[in-house]
């Protein structure tokens, strides 16, 4: 029995060894093909689908906003409610828009297109119901019905956002800051897109805007969902080439933002005689949104020509030039060259490893807690101090922005401004620029200096103090400047929080962790918008629940100034704690510093020897 067991074990050992070396020989000795840099590649190229996923995600995000300011006064008039009740609707709207934990859980169980389908259904049902109430199709619509509808409609954004953001973060795992800046930036720019649609195409009709929200985003998501998918691409380009494509899309996005700003100002200040002009303005905006599709198209043409060259080289390798034997020798030499570039494994160590793995001697440790930078589950992240520091920094950073977004119409009314369309556009465009710029700047400094991204959240909150003071003590003419500063600093919080959370707690369960941190936004809306701003506004309001003058929101923004100071201090603590994590995640910085130190020491040694 003992000899028979030993024989079976030796047979299993030999079979495992043979299979292992067959796989290695198949890797090294299969026909090699030319790569784009003139070398050879044993990997099979894949089409550039990642960029098509990113472009489709941009389209979905561009129509995912909820321009609440444009129809909030209509809802207030139809339902005959006070400011506190209106702010409560805004809180429920924020809870719906950012309650994406269920979407994050289902992301690892369902494909992205299913999440986009659920979002499209919610948008149709929610905004369609709000349109029915606002258009007075129901003679006596209850307030509770509006609460339910205003939760379901904006909740579609959480499904859209989770599906596209997590997918693109995994597809571009080495450019997380850039991807987060693009996608979160277009969420901010979405309000400016709706502003132009509202002013030019819909002619300031809030009911038409609600109907567009019920139909437009579902159509865009249904068209784009076929492209949004995880891509395990092996066609990994060098960082400079990928960065050039990001810069190209970045320039297009900035051009679109500037165009939206100029078009909105023209709509507000110039009266056009021709009815074709509003349609032309909207058409040019849609053309800007289509242009990014040329990036994956050009990428596909490059990939197609490379595939043809590889096929021609492979065909030439199959035809022996000096006999079959000489051709095989040349291919074998090339394969050995490829093999020498890869890390070699000692034969004895490899055999021992595979044997131990097969017999169960090597097992994964269960119950061990991950370290920062590894994949965390939500319950594991909840017991980490860094998680709650990031949560609180984000909470403090988005507070003033949420209050401004939810109350901008009432703030303008208090200052005697009847139309805040241009101010909404200012806030939206600079919100986009903040998100986009923070993604690029943080990516640069995290690679060159291993600087924690959370530093930029603190800097933005320090600058946000000036916007709070402008809203509290400013004049009617400074309202646009305050909205621009607020939008820029508010946008930075989003594009920094997203990659920071993924770098600290991993990408495997990122959807759930990201949506949990996002739940701080409805908490902000409840604490600062409904309770603080709403109660103070009604306290200062006169007849008809209308307040006039800077006193309506002065105390609110002074409190928010103190919140920004707290957030700034917390961001410094968080950045100090996670600095070692970034030095580990981005070791290129330490190598670069070491090389510069060696060069400077060598130069000083040469100078001293020459002296």
From TrEMBL:
CDD domains: MFS_Mch1p_like. Residues 379-581 form the NFD4 C-terminal domain. Keywords: Membrane, Transmembrane, Transmembrane helix. It comes from the Eukaryota. It is found in: Membrane. GO terms for cellular component: membrane. Its main location: membrane. The chain crosses the membrane at residues 114-134, 140-166, 178-201, 207-228, 248-270, 276-295, 387-408, 414-434, 455-473, 479-500, 512-537, 557-576. SUPFAM superfamilies: MFS general substrate transporter (SSF103473). InterPro entries: MFS_trans_sf (IPR036259), NFD4_C (IPR056555), Nodulin-like (IPR010658). It is a multi-pass membrane protein. Residues 50-296 form the Nodulin-like domain. This is Nodulin-like domain-containing protein.
């Amino acid at each position: 029995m003992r000899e028979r067991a030993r024989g079976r074990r030796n047979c299993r050992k030999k079979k495992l060894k043979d299979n292992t070396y067959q796989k290695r020989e198949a890797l090294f000795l299969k026909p090699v093909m030319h790569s784009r840099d003139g070398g050879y590649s044993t990997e099979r190229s894949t089409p550039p689908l990642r960029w098509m996923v990113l472009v489709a995600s941009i389209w979905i995000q561009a129509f995912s906003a909820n321009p609440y300011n444009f129809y909030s006064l209509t809802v207030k008039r139809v339902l005959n409610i006070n400011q506190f009740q209106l702010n409560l609707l805004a809180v429920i709207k924020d809870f719906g828009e950012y309650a994406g934990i269920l979407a994050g859980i289902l992301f690892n169980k369902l494909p992205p297109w299913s999440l986009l389908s659920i979002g499209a259904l919610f948008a149709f049902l929610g905004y369609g119901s709000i349109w029915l109430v606002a258009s007075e199709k129901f003679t006596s619509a209850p307030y509770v019905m509006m609460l339910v509808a205003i939760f379901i409609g904006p909740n579609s954004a959480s499904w859209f956002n989770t599906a596209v953001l997590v997918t693109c973060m995994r597809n571009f795992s080495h450019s997380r800051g850039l991807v987060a800046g693009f996608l979160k930036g277009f969420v901010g720019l979405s309000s400016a897109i709706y502003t132009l649609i509202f002013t030019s195409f819909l002619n300031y009709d809030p009911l038409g805007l609600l109907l567009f929200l019920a139909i437009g985003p579902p159509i865009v998501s249904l068209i784009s969902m076929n492209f949004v998918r995880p891509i395990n691409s092996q066609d990994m380009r060098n960082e400079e080439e990928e960065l050039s494509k990001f810069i190209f899309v970045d320039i297009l996005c900035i051009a679109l933002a500037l165009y939206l700003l100029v078009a909105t100002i023209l709509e507000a200040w110039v009266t056009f005689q021709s009815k074709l002009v509003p349609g032309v303005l909207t058409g040019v905006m849609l053309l800007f949104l289509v242009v990014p599709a040329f990036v994956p198209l050009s990428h596909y043409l490059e990939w197609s020509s490379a595939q043809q060259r590889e096929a021609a080289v492979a065909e030439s390798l199959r035809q022996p030039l000096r006999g079959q034997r000489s051709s095989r020798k040349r291919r074998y030499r090339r394969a050995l060259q490829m093999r020498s570039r890869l890390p070699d494994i000692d034969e004895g160590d490899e055999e021992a490893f595979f044997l131990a793995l097969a017999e169960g001697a090597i097992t994964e440790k269960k119950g061990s807690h991950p370290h920062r930078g590894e994949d965390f589950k939500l319950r594991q992240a909840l017991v980490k101090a860094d998680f709650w520091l990031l949560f609180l920094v984000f909470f403090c950073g988005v507070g003033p922005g949420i209050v401004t977004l939810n109350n901008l119409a009432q703030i303008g009314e208090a200052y005697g401004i009847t139309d805040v369309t241009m101010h909404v556009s200012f806030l939206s465009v600079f919100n986009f620029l903040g998100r986009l710029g923070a993604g690029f700047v943080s990516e640069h400094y995290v690679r060159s200096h291993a600087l924690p991204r959370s530093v930029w959240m603190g800097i933005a909150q320090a600058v946000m103090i000036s916007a709070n003071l402008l809203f509290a003590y400013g004049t009617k003419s400074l309202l646009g400047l305050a909205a621009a500063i607020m939008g820029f600093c508010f946008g930075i919080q989003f594009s920094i929080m997203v990659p920071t959370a993924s770098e600290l707690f991993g990408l495997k369960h990122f959807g759930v962790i990201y949506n949990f941190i996002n739940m701080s936004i409805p908490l902000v809306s409840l604490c600062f918008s409904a309770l603080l701003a709403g109660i103070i506004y009604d306290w200062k309001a006169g007849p008809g629940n209308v307040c006039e003058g800077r006193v309506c929101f002065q105390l609110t923004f002074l409190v928010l100034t103190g919140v920004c100071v707290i957030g700034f201090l917390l961001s410094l603590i968080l950045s100090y704690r996670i600095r070692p994590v970034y030095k580990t995640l981005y070791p290129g910085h330490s190598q670069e510093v070491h090389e510069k130190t060696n060069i400077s020491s060598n130069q000083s040694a040469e100078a001293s020897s020459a002296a």
